[in-house]
From TrEMBL:
It comes from the Bacteria. The chain crosses the membrane at residues 12-34, 74-97, 109-129, 141-161, 182-207, 256-275. It is a multi-pass membrane protein. Belongs to the binding-protein-dependent transport system permease family. Keywords: Cell membrane, Membrane, Transmembrane, Transmembrane helix, Transport. This is ABC transporter permease subunit. It is found in: Cell membrane. It holds the Pfam family BPD_transp_1. One of its GO terms (biological process) is transmembrane transport. Residues 74-275 form the ABC transmembrane type-1 domain. Its main location: membrane. Signal peptide: none annotated.
């Protein structure tokens, strides 16, 4: 065992103190949001700051979930996440697989076009004009289609497909499979770690849709949870929630905001543990060559 010098011990202690402080700074805002959301409204009004409430309450959550606008925004975000993630995975994985096939004519030119989209973005106005010409303004599909794929994700997934031996596809071809059948029955089952990792990326992207939804969706009934949450954070009252059960007493606006933030982050936190075992493997596969 190597004996540490005094300087090494001082460095280790300083490092632990620094990391401890950074952990507290990082975790405390999340802790405070959760605590305030569960604080009894009367207790919150009586105290300037609540670190550990004496009386826990679900009043803010009951009030939010009784709002038709809030529940509808959750439904919109769920639709965007489920449908958008599925469409993005199909488009990205199939496109990346096509670019990984050496017999695909013109793949180098198309790959250059993909790289070009990573370096240069047309901007907001051309995108908006395109969506408008397609007649998708105020349609949920406008939010999905503008985020359907990503050049960087295509490149990463192509790297994963490049690591799969061509002999597998050749063997499937000999057995009578075409390219589509080989991709569905052989390649996709081998791609589950990569699919899980990129699926999580796309799910987070669609669940957190804010700017595109604000840009393309005019009706408040089609707003996802992030847009409604932004309106709640700006508005000091609960008027952005629309019609609420009149029998419920409105909690303080701050507890409502904190409860809305908790509801907005919980779905992704619930999905991540199921994909965690595939996450690191899916991201690293294809990033290096043996």
């Amino acid at each position: 065992m190597i004996k540490k010098s005094v300087g090494d011990k001082v460095f280790d202690v300083s490092n632990l103190i620094f990391l401890g402080i950074m952990s507290i700074v990082t975790i405390f805002p999340i802790y405070y949001v959760v605590v305030v959301s569960f604080t009894d409204p009367i207790e919150y009004l009586q105290k300037s700051m609540v670190l550990f409430p004496e009386n826990w309450s679900l009043a803010s959550y009951e009030y939010l979930l009784s709002s038709g606008a809030f529940v509808q925004s959750l439904g919109v975000s769920t639709f965007l996440t489920v449908v958008g993630t599925a469409c993005s995975l199909v488009i990205t994985s199939s496109f990346a697989y096509a670019l990984s096939r050496k017999k695909f004519k013109g793949r180098k030119f198309i790959l250059l076009l993909v790289l070009f989209t990573i370096l240069f973005n047309p901007g907001i106005i051309p995108n908006y004009l395109l969506v408008k010409e397609l007649g998708l303004i105020n349609s949920l599909w406008s939010v999905i289609l503008v985020s359907l794929s990503n050049g960087w994700f295509v490149i990463l997934m192509k790297g994963f497909y490049d690591s799969i031996p061509d002999t597998l596809v050749e063997a499937a071809t000999i057995d009578g499979c075409n390219d589509l059948t080989a991709w569905i029955k052989i390649i996709l089952p081998l791609s589950l770690p990569s699919i899980a990792a990129f699926g999580l990326f796309f799910a987070v992207q669609y669940w957190n849709q804010y700017f595109n939804a604000l840009l393309y969706l005019n009706e408040s009934s089609k707003w996802p949870i992030q847009v409604l949450l932004q309106n709640m954070l700006i508005d000091a009252s609960s008027s952005s929630l629309g019609d609420v059960d009149p029998l419920l007493q409105p909690p303080p606006s701050e507890t409502l905001k904190m409860a809305a933030v908790v509801i907005a982050i919980v779905p992704i936190l619930m999905i991540y543990p199921f994909l965690q075992k595939h996450f690191a493997k899916g991201v690293m596969i294809g990033s290096i060559k043996e």
